């Protein structure tokens, strides 16, 4: 039997042709911040923590976040540090406690998620 080719290529073609040549190339440069945000929110504890902070009226102490998240203060501190590194929370230290609140970036991200949720709920 001879060599078979599919309908999209032939043995004489060196490069496959794109079906959608209008799709631009995407460079990773400039996307690092967005990737950092999504990576930070990809953990259940961190996502729930950011939701609790967004729903709170003002700053929240780490000691008040551990019980509703059912994790240790150490675990929530680690999660909040990751959110801080991603620019999603601000923090301040008072005595031995740290207080956290969401940043405007976090509020914008949550608004997008909520808007998407309301659209999909209405479909």
Shape: elongated
Low-confidence segments, ≥5 residues, pLDDT <50? none
Give the name of the CATH superfamily.
Winged helix-like DNA-binding domain superfamily/Winged helix DNA-binding domain
Largest sheet: 3 strands, antiparallel
CATH class: Mainly Alpha
Q: Mean of the pLDDT scores? A: 85
CATH topology: Arc Repressor Mutant, subunit A
Number of domains: 1
Radius of gyration: 23 Å
Could you tell me how far the N terminus lies from the C terminus, measured between alpha carbons in angstroms? 52 Å
The amount of beta strand, in percent, is 5-15%
Q: In terms of structural class, how would the helical and strand content be classed?
A: mainly alpha
Count of DSSP strands? 3
**H and E string:** HHEHHEEH
Output the number of helix runs. Answer: 5
Protein name: Metalloregulator ArsR/SmtB family transcription factor
Organism: Halocatena salina
InterPro entries: ArsR-like_HTH, HTH_ArsR_DNA-bd_dom, HTH_MetalResp_TranReg, WH-like_DNA-bd_sf, WH_DNA-bd_sf
GO molecular function, one term: DNA binding
Characterization of the model:
This is Metalloregulator ArsR/SmtB family transcription factor. Keywords: DNA-binding, Plasmid, Transcription, Transcription regulation. It holds the Pfam family HTH_5. By secondary structure, this protein is mainly α. It has a single domain, classed as Orthogonal Bundle (Arc Repressor Mutant, subunit A), CATH 1.10.10. The chain contains 5 helices and 3 strands; from the N terminus they run ααβααββα. Strands 1-3-2 form a 3-stranded antiparallel sheet. Helix 3 crosses helix 4. The chain is elongated and about 65 Å long. The termini are far apart. 15% of the residues are buried. The mean pLDDT is 85.
